[in-house]
Amino acid sequence: MPSTARVSDTIVDQLEAMILEGTLQAGQRLPTERALAERFEVSRPSVRDALQKLGARGLVRRQQGGGTYVADGVGASFTDPLLELLSQDPNSANSVIEFRHALEGLAARLAAERGTAEDRELILRKFDELQRLQAEGSLEEEAAADAEFHLAIAEAAHNPVLLHVMRTMFLLLRDNIVGNLGSMERGSEPRQRIREQHENMLKHIVLSPDPEQARASAREHLETVGDMVRDNIAAEERQRTSQRRDLFKP
User: Fold this and answer.
1) Which of 95, 176, 214, 241 has the least CB density, counted as fewest CB within 10 Å?
2) Distance (Å, rounded) from C-alpha 221 to C-alpha 215?
3) Given a cut of 50, is residue 78 above it in pLDDT?
4) Are the C-beta atoms of 223 and 98 separated by less than 8 Å?
């Protein structure tokens, strides 16, 4: 009969894999020891030993009387310092677009290649929620739904490094979308173009998967957003220039 230590190591390996692939996310509560023992078909002492090992590695935290959670810092160790740094950079919006352009074209291609039926169902649900909030939600709600749609595509890529980078940057991604959408009227032609580009991404990733078309549609979307960001930055700079000139007019 395998020892408790060997059994617990097997549980550790499986839970670590679930954290790595994003099935278990930072802050998420784990099932009870009893539920985990039933799921893995092992004894509760083996589960308890596994959770202790994960806790020692900083991957989970145990709350007295409140269960066990994936550690809050997992996958987010550089988020806050990066946000603070970028908040001081006037070109941060354009920098985020360049970052997204590099990653999300790849994510879309891999999602079209590797996405499972469950992945496609999730992307479709996120798309439907985005459409609903585009019609009736607040700017912040729409931006969060937009970011969730893009994250669902990253999940379907089945590349844990790409997924965790995207997840870590979620707040930055959401705030970038808020800034981009905030300069456009809800029914404006640019907002309609973005909606159509999301539809193209859905088509090539979910409805009729085509990896190269998926990548092209994601990159086209981000090129459009990038052009809008640069136009907004240029317009704001012209406004600041005019205001500075006004200070010295007689």
Assistant:
1) 241
2) 10
3) no
4) no
